[in-house]
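*Target chain*
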Amino acid sequence: MSTALYAGSNRFITSGERRITRHSFSFGEHYDPANLGFGPMICHNDDALAPGGGYPDHPHSDLEIVTWVIDGVLLHTDDAGNTEELRPGDVQVMSAGSGIRHAEIADAQSGPTRFLQTWIKPDEAGTPPRWRSESIHPGAGLTTVVGADGLGIGTAGAALSIARLHEGASAQLPDAALLHAFVAVGAGRIADTEATAGDAVRLTDQPGATFVATADTELIVWSFTR
């Protein structure tokens, strides 16, 4: 059993033209052998884009890539012909499989854009690539948006849940072997661990854990059964 706070102020930062990315794990030039991932999660990036900024066309393979938009409008295009304007409350799942190219650019007319992107290792390599999105309206409790009860991904036992909580409200976290709770906006407490915006709490074998909001909060929780 363990509970560990990973402060947002300690995240690796990569700056590019009209973008800033804050990394939870080793990424690119930022190598930390003690922080390569958490269960099948190998990337949890918090991206801030200026209008028109982002990531031009680039490839991926054998990753489940999940994107959640917090502010602004993110324009997605890929070589399978998919296009989408992703807005706050929109979740996108891209199973890169045998290979896909895509671009993610902040809409130039909609102001700054912030989104979270998570990369999950799939159970099987080389599957046909897939893309899908859905608009979600989380309530006061955790709403499962990706996993067996949401948009499916190619990683068994992985699920993404989201809650929007008013100050003083609480949410029961899923019962899973591994939990990654990220405070996107606001602040709260898990057991004796205080977390503010940009912080993540990683829990191992902590059934019955509860998050209590100490401010109006948007909480992003990944759970893994193995």
Summary: The first strand starts at residue 2 and ends at 6.
